[in-house]
Amino acid sequence: MDLLCLGELLIDFVPTVLGRKLRDVPAFEKAAGGAPGNVACGFSRLGGSSGFIGKVGNDEFGHFLEQT
Description:
68 residues; alpha+beta; two-stranded parallel ribbon; two-stranded antiparallel sheet
């Protein structure tokens, strides 16, 4: 392994429509986020070997992050 990242994973809620105020957005899509997770994924996409150490909740959001 070339890179080991430690930290948090987050869920970003991205508006489905751009250019509106948040109160006027009809819906949001969820996307995995968090700097350590993003770095590990980006490094792997560039051909490196990476790992991640962190913890997620035992709920729907945590399961989403594990699958992403």
